[in-house]
Write a structure and sequence with these properties.
The chain is mostly helical. It has one helix at about 10-90. It starts with 9 loop residues before the first helix and ends in a 10-residue tail after the last helix.
Length: about 100
């Protein structure tokens, strides 16, 4: 049995091509919207991170200054205790904590 050939007319071909372009355009539109949403979420997350870093810097500044002052005080106190021990004739024992 010979196959019956279906003739494709120019208008049918044009409709098929147009349907293909429409399908691709719709898929690209959806992808573009998804990428825009992902970009928006990424920007918002970077803004949150930037805010957190600013808070950390604001908090750390005074803490660092306090630590420096305490280290200076500790160094001064160690020097003074050493001087007092020498004057009193007290031998400083060294202990190693394990």
């Amino acid at each position: 049995m010979p196959k019956e050939e279906k003739k494709v007319e120019l208008e049918d071909l044009a409709r098929m091509v147009q349907a293909g372009f429409t399908d691709i355009h719709d898929k690209m539109d959806k992808r573009s919207k998804l990428e825009d949403e992902r970009f928006k979420i990424t920007v918002e997350e970077f803004d949150r991170i930037r805010s957190d870093i600013r808070d950390i810097k604001t908090t750390l500044g005074p803490l660092v200054r306090s630590v420096v002052m305490m280290e200076e005080d500790l160094s001064d106190l160690r020097l003074r205790v050493g001087t007092l021990e020498r004057r009193a004739g007290i031998k400083k024992e060294i202990s190693f904590a394990v």
